[in-house]
Every structure is written in C-alpha cells, then in structure tokens.
TrEMBL record:
Membrane-topology annotation of the record: Multi-pass membrane protein
Chain segments annotated as transmembrane: 54-76
Localization in the cell: Cell membrane; Membrane
Domain of life: Bacteria
Family, similarity comment: Belongs to the SecG family.
Signal sequence residues: none
Any one Gene Ontology molecular-function term assigned to this protein's record: protein-transporting ATPase activity
Protein name listed in UniProt: Protein-export membrane protein SecG
Taxonomy of the source species: Bacteria, Bacillati, Actinomycetota, Actinomycetes, Micrococcales
Gene name per UniProt: secG
Organism: Microbacterium lushaniae
Amino acid sequence: MQIIEFVLQVLLGITSLLLTLLILLHKGRGGGLSDMFGGGMTSSLGSSGLAERNLNRFTIVLALVWFVTIVGLGLITKFQGL
C-alpha cells in the first residue's frame, strides 16, 4: 500500500504543477499572464480558437486526474489504520 500512496503523491505533485501552468496559459478576459506568451495577439489569428479549445480540454482532463488522485489519497489515509 505504501507504493501506491507514494505514486499517488508524486502524481499529485506533478499534476498540481502542470495544472497551475495550464491555468496561467489560458486566455484572460482583460489580458493578464496569458498576454506575456502572445495571448493578446490571438484575436487576429484564425487558428487560435483551436489552440484554446485544446488547452481547455487538456486542462479539464488534468483537473480530473488531479481530483481522482486527491480522492484516492484520502481513501488510503482513511482506511490505512484499519
């Protein structure tokens, strides 16, 4: 059980960092950090919608993995003493 807990902790750390990065890359309404990486110029490009949709999909999938990892760690912690 310790190996599974260790793997989930490492997965939680990696997904937390990636999720933070992906959220900061999203196009903001008024600019923000996404403009630093060229997000402000996307209104004149035709393919920017596809990139934003793919970023949204990847962020949602990563958020689901993050959530399942937290639930798994919680269950391991709860039932560890039994």
